[in-house]
Design brief:
By secondary structure, this protein is an alpha/beta fold. About 55% of the residues lie in helices and about 5% in strands. Strands 1-2-3-4-5 form a five-stranded mixed β-sheet. Helix 10 links the parallel strand 3 and strand 4. It starts with a helix and ends with a helix.
């Protein structure tokens, strides 16, 4: 079919799923449970997108085997699931804000470079194991004619709509609670430090140090006369993006990168510094500062090594503690501390779930509400 016809398949599935969102369109309760398991799992957002791509392909080309989404298999009934995923599913999930990965499921290690029929007995070596097993079983359910590909696609979309709306409702409630908690008393600098520190200690928070530094520049851009360049994707490699690090800073009226930040949730090593120098010489001749931000202990040996880089390269290199950086910034720009907090929250909430999970976003709003409430209650007794 033409692109417009494939798009129409997705639009029809959306219409049928939305028509009676609280009622499954499949009578088999076990199959419905499998789809719900995949759609709701916060740890793995690739499988649900994989299922959508495969079922879409089967509807578009009824003669294919839904269990063979790899042209490398070489059979007449095999197909390219990745093509359907990238050409159609990406736009669909973005347009309707469905809780899926922002990139193709076929680059996920478990689904990458396969050339076998995906029967229920294949070990995909993915986590959670139950989600991958349910995914393979759903493909087999279609193959065995327990359900149709159209039913699988529509029921999957229905569950994604349910999960999306539930998340929207939780976020709305948290934002309303935060708004109610705000009083005339601003959080002190150390209160903000404590809040961010609590947030960074939560699981899967490796993206957050980038947002901390980015929010600092957003808040103080007019004073610094410097600005951050658009953030690259969390999992995008520097070689792919052509960037020098996680954050690039330019003068406010120029495009030449003068400062670069690289974030580490582990100890910074001498090798990290050497690699940074290689990137600087290959990509840019305008860098003046290359700053590592880490959430781990900084070895004095590495500090000394970074100091010696200036004489060799003409580039200032330094390794800073993330919370130390934030504490100094908030006290240096004390009157901008709430502007920083708002910038951090805004950056956090617009991050894709592949970088910052929904639970991590919700946790921050809950932590901030608690901090704001406590501060305002304390103010009543002063």
């Amino acid at each position: 079919m033409a692109n417009a016809e494939v798009t129409a398949i997705l639009d029809l599935a959306l219409h049928k799923a939305s028509k009676n969102i609280n009622k499954p369109i499949i009578n088999n309760a076990e199959i419905v449970q499998r789809i719900e398991l995949i759609a709701r799992n916060a740890q793995n957002r690739a499988c649900v997108r994989f299922i959508m791509a495969c079922s879409l392909a089967k509807i578009d080309k009824p003669g294919i085997d839904i269990r063979k989404p790899y042209t490398e298999i070489g059979d007449d009934d095999s197909f390219s699931g990745r093509t359907y995923d990238e050409a159609h599913i990406t736009e669909f999930v973005n347009q309707h804000e469905l809780p899926c990965n922002s990139t193709t499921a076929f680059l996920t290690p478990a689904f990458r470079n396969r050339n076998v029929v995906l029967t229920p007995y294949v070990n995909l070596v993915g986590r959670p194991e139950s989600v991958y097993k349910a995914t393979l079983q759903l493909l087999d359910d279609v193959f065995q004619k327990e359900i149709t590909a159209d039913e699988l696609l529509t029921e999957t979309v229905r569950w994604l709509l349910i999960v999306r709306d539930e998340k929207r409702q939780r976020m709305s409630s948290l934002l309303a609670g935060l708004k109610a908690a705000k009083g005339e008393t601003s959080l002190p600098a150390e209160g903000i430090v404590n809040l961010i520190e609590q947030h960074l200690k939560l699981k899967n928070s490796s993206r957050l140090p980038v947002l901390v530094v980015a929010a600092a520049y957003e808040a103080a851009s007019d004073y610094l006369r410097e600005k951050i360049q658009p953030l690259q994707g969390h999992n995008a490699a520097d070689k792919q993006t052509g960037s020098l690090g996680d954050l690039e800073i330019t003068l406010i009226d120029d495009q030449q990168v003068i400062t670069c930040y690289e974030m580490k949730t582990r100890k910074v090593t001498k090798n990290d510094l050497d690699h940074a120098v290689e990137k600087v010489f290959k990509i840019s001749h305008t860098i003046q500062n290359y700053i590592f931000i880490t959430t781990e202990v900084i070895d004095q040996e590495v500090v000394n090594y970074a100091y010696g880089m200036y004489e060799k390269t003409g580039v200032e290199m330094v390794v800073l503690d993330c919370m130390g950086f934030l504490r100094h910034f908030l006290h240096l720009f004390y009157r901008l501390r709430m502007r920083f907090l708002e910038a951090y929250q805004e950056l956090l909430l617009i991050e894709p779930e592949s970088a910052v999970s929904q639970p991590l976003k919700e946790a921050f709003l809950a932590l901030r509400q608690a901090a704001e409430t406590q501060e305002n209650q304390a103010g009543l007794y002063e």
